[in-house]
Amino acid sequence: MSMLKGANTPVSAAAVRVELGWQSGPGVPDADASALLLAGTGRVRSDEDFVFYNQPAHRSGAVRHEGKQQGPTVRDTLVVDLGRVEPDIEKIVVSASSDSGTFGRFQGLYVRVLDAQNGAELARFDNPGATTETAFVLGELYRRQGQWKFRAVGQGYDSGLAGLATDFGITIDDAPPPPPQTQQAPPPPPQPTPPPQPQYAPPPPPQQPQYAPPPPPNQYAPPPQPQYAPPPQPQYAPPPPPPAPQQAEPQMQGGKISLTKNAPSVSLTKHGATSGHMRVNLNWSARPGAAKGFLGKRRRGIDLDLDLCCLWELQDGSKGIIHALGDMGDLNRPPFIKLDKDDRTGGTESGENMTINLDHTREFRRILVFAEIYDGAEDFRGLDAIATLYPIGSPPIEMRMDDCADASRDAVLALIENVNGELVVRREGRFVLPPPGRPRWGKLSVDQAYGWNLEWVASRGKD
Fold first, then answer.
1. What are phi and psi of 284, to 5 degrees?
2. Bias category Pro residues: which stretches (predicted)?
3. Domains, the chain, ranges and CATH?
4. Side-chain half-sphere of 53: how many Cα atoms within 13 Å?
5. Using one digit for the tens of pLDDT, what is the confidence trace for 104-129?
């Protein structure tokens, strides 16, 4: 049952999934979910307290943006581990924004809170009556006497995500101006009017708006002349701009499904990959002059050595990392993932391989697949990495990364998530810089970027 605006309800779960959803269809814009972690002042402590698609995990690990699922109902999801929320955070604001249209063009916009463990719905708010808004605070999780609660808010903004975020203390560089109002002012009456307010007669007092008396929001109050009769739905005049294109479906190329920036995700379940062993393959090459180690040297003749790694998390909360310098994993017991041999050059046809046992799909929560430079290059500039997934019963799924522009030594290839029992692969295509002064600690940066929060210690190198 949907909550009324302003109502609140207790949240008893230790961790929740906050789902923003709406009905897809022709002319419906896209929207993005985000979260702001507020201190007792009602504002963020810093810009790091803002979680959204470009900053998908809070440093505490308490909040992370899981991403979007397309379909008849589009869903964008945040995960909140209430037990990890820092003591000085009193409220988590859940917001939505659209940069391709107003919320008046959305149908069935809602936010709901689910128990992250069993999927039970704890709260739901269907947001009605949107018109020209381009951002909304839909709800908030807040503490009250040691108990977490959820409140339905439904506060709209005409100034988009920038205006909403600024209200809560986020610093926006070169924030775009608010979008123009979509209502069209009625044409001036034919009779002459005094110069101060030529379009209306008689002129209103200076302190009043050009309409007298002021109309209710989003309505015209035209004079009685027929030419002022407003259209049946004034918020839709003039006609809206063409809708932004929906996320494209991945295309088959050479017998493989190719994941790109424009078509970044695919459902393994919908393609029939529901069991068996799925191989994840990493191959790479270096463009001329790119393969060299620190100080321009090469180590023992090895040109380029990349390692295939993954961070994993199961539904029971257990988590860890699979990599060549530590745990190689196991297919028949948790984490049901195993790394094969370590390819030291990328020269073998098979490259490096990792196997995931899809017979245990229900036990996976998320798997983050990434590559790290061990030796042979200072960073990913000039390197071409190709990751290919080979699920049983489905075409291979391929993603490429060849556009590094900084000193990153780690490349996040794909995030595999269990979304309501459906295993979805999303191309990340994200390069991650190591911590300052610690070039060998790139895995720590990947952990922090995605909120895994493992404990890290120094390890020995390869023999």
1. -155, 165
2. 175-245
3. 8-167 (2.60.60.30), 252-450 (2.60.60.30)
4. 11
5. 888 889 999 999 988 899 999 998 67
